[in-house]
Amino acid sequence: MSHSNNQNALMRFITAKNKDVKHYPGFGLISVAFFLFLYLPILVVITYSFNSNKIVSVWQGFSFKWYLSALQNEGLMNAVQVSLTVATIATIIATSVATAAALVLSRGKEVKHVKLSETVINLPLMLPEIVFAVAILILFSQLGLQDGLTKLILAHACFCIPFAFLPIRARLQGMTNNLEQAAQDLYANPWITFKRITLPLILPGIFAGAMLSFVISMDDFITSSIVSGGGATTLPVYIFSLVKQGVSPELNAISTLIMLVSLLLVTPAWMISKRNK
Amino acid sequence: MKFAKSTLAGLTALSLSFSVSAAEKLNIYTWSESIDPSLIEKFEQETGIQVTLDGYTSNEDLLAKLKSGSSDYDLVMPSQHFVKIMIQEDLLKNINAKSLAAFKNLDPRWKGQWWDPNDEYSIAFAYGTASFAFNTNEYSGPGNSWKEFFEPEESLKGKIAAFSTPDEIIPAAQAYLGIDFCSEDSNEMKRVYQLLKKQKPYVAVYSSDNISSRLAGGEVAMHSWWDGDTMRARKDNKAPIIYAQPLEGLIGWLDALVVPKGSRNTENAKTFINWISQEANATTQYNYYGHSSGFIINARNAKHKPNNSPEIFPEVRVKFTQACSPVAQKLVDKVWTQLLL
Amino acid sequence: MNQIINNAHKQNASINKPFNLRLSWNLIGLMPAYLVMFFLMIIPLGIIFYVSMMTSDPYGGYEAIFSLESYQQILFTYDWDDNLNLNFQYLIIIARTLLLASATAIICLLISFPVAYFISRQSNSTKALLLYLITLPFWVSMVIRVYAWVLILSNDGVLESSLTFLGLTSGMDSLLYNNNAMLVGMVYSYIPLMILPIYASIEKLDARLTEAASDLYSTRLSTLTKIILPLCKPGIVAGFILVFVPCLGTVLEPMLLGGGKTMMMGNLIQNQFSIARNWSFGASLAVVLLIIVMLFLMWNARKSSRPIVEGSAV
User: Fold this and answer.
1) Average pLDDT per block of 10 residues along chain A, 277 residues long
2) What are the C-alpha distances in Å from A19 to residues A8, A23, C150, C214?
3) What domains does chain B contain, in order, with CATH numbers?
4) Contacts of A38 in chain C (CB under 8 A)
């Protein structure tokens, strides 16, 4: 039954609403084509990951063997561990820094140069990443900073700040400060007000910001590949090194696994944010 | 609540990473797929040292990484001329190589060489040559002159591939033109440039990655390559590939184990050098890698012998590349930048 | 009402709390962000300027000797007889970068507007689902998304084999390693950044305006061009910036889909810090890229600060 509903909906997508003044013919078709374009490459990777043939483009039969070899791949597991460590710590730093800044800019009294502060915090968004990457490479080399993980964490924390800042700031701007004022009028001290009122209210924003910076950090390639050193190869850098060695079924299996994990991470986050709206 | 949970997860990851850093580690940066993975596993089991292995495909990549400072590698494997440059540039640690157990296992030919005259920094690991290899389905040979590579026949247009860096291509061109390596004469280097420029329309791609599949799959007919790698492709994958042995000379290289300045696990690096130099391990490594070993190996267990491995027992002369002066190096870079533009 | 509470509260606060304390709280809250940006953004950018005006060391790194040679190198090269010649090769790379980035942004716009409009016309739950579907690939690793196109476009890749299977072609030239391949990859990578802001601005559109237009016998086309598009301008401009700026510095697409032969500024700069080992030249290219982005953003800020006559008049 739900199937026929879907079909009806699909028909409506394409044919109906012709009489409607707001309807533009062709937009539906473009959208269908667009979604195909969006998902076709992903489907190709997933399909080929089950190909038992070592030559990727020639289909031989269905097999899970590349998944087994992917999961036993030590380099891959190392890279996953590095990426998770870097992303987690960078996210914690970026989110704390961004929350503090957003609170001051939205709730602080007599804050001067709000526009300037916002620009400074959003600097990483205005800069092509390659420029940031080589700049920070030279900085680390001048400082003689050794540890690969530390370098990655510092760089990632920096460019994640605006991604954490924007959702938190948006949340704060979207709500009035009536409740906080009511609390203060009832002689709650600022800390209690923050803990009991402000924090719970902006938590969805903090969650969205943390989520966004985590994903941005996990996904980063340019900076990581330029800064990375011994024992600090992140997942995208590792995958890139595999791509350079050529198309392989194991690479497809690894990619599919990563897509699966992102799906499992993003879907609950999406549902939470939907509920909170 | 959610946030608390994710914070908790973060802290777990944090403690995880610290527990890892407490273990003995060794970060090796070496030529891609050069060390037998089973040997690494064996080494980890015997010593409890955790090895991470990253790969590069050109000496230039390695030099750039070390020059950018603080790369955090403990063991790297540059070729002889880059060993000399890295010593000059103060990038390597003096590990007093003479005193290591591995030094006794070294083939005497590789002691006291010009790149490290007092045997302080480096231990020879493997040596071999660079030339070009061709797929016999696409090109019939004979494969005895650099002319076939640099001034190819018309049918090879877009069917040749060359290394992505000048390190061994320019010496090969110099050998073909009869010019000394590391020439500081800009007229001579102009001739090298002109030769490469004339070759460019025939070159489909300048790349040092993924050579095996590109050549064996027939995407290109001819490819710059190394001796042992060609042999592995021929023996392991039964690829119809022949390693050319130009009469003008093969380009010789020797990769040495060295420890970069700033390595934090120098003792582990020395342990690894000593361990891999032991006869049994060096022989296993030789059988896997296919390049001649810098160490004394067990001839009986060696898989590659003169009668079945013409690639690594060449009959033409071999000219080893040299460390160029800054002037010569600038000319090399100039040729390459102008070529690739 | 709110106003009154606010004012009352302000007075309250200024009586209870000394002014200085407020200020220091502000300072403490903003300080970490300023510190991070100062040490990890502004100082490194300063170093880039500095290095771009130094001499590069042939083995990598730089020597602290003042020289503008690396800027000169963008426009001129010494030929083999040591004559200084104009050299258009780097300018071509810069032009190609600008062209591909603009083309990407324009193609993204042409696709995004109909799609965003289409989505805005669906029921609420369909809307949410479609938006989710658009953002989903964005969470998947960028490297993998670009790699998928290598799989599709390469020799014997998906596209070629399916076309051969359908009998439409046999043995075509490789689709990889050219400008078109890079363009496809860039559109694919960055298009969600265009759709979302445009969608947001369409959602804000007052439905009565389009209805009024049609009541006044406006055709669909003129409703679109005279009412909808001008009102969506902020979203379109935001999307354009979000796509155009990262495209200028993109590295993955030229490396994987351009094959390293057709370069863009991103991978040209990256090369100078890896195999080419010419830090000063790389730094000067980074400065040029930075200036291009700044000029673009400034031009855009000036344009959007002017009142939008058509839009605000309605």
Assistant:
1) 54 53 81 92 89 73 85 86 94 96 85 87 90 93 85 95 91 81 80 83 88 89 87 88 81 87 78 63
2) 18, 8, 43, 12
3) 25-127+253-293 (3.40.190.10), 128-252+313-340 (3.40.190.10)
4) 133-134, 137, 188, 191
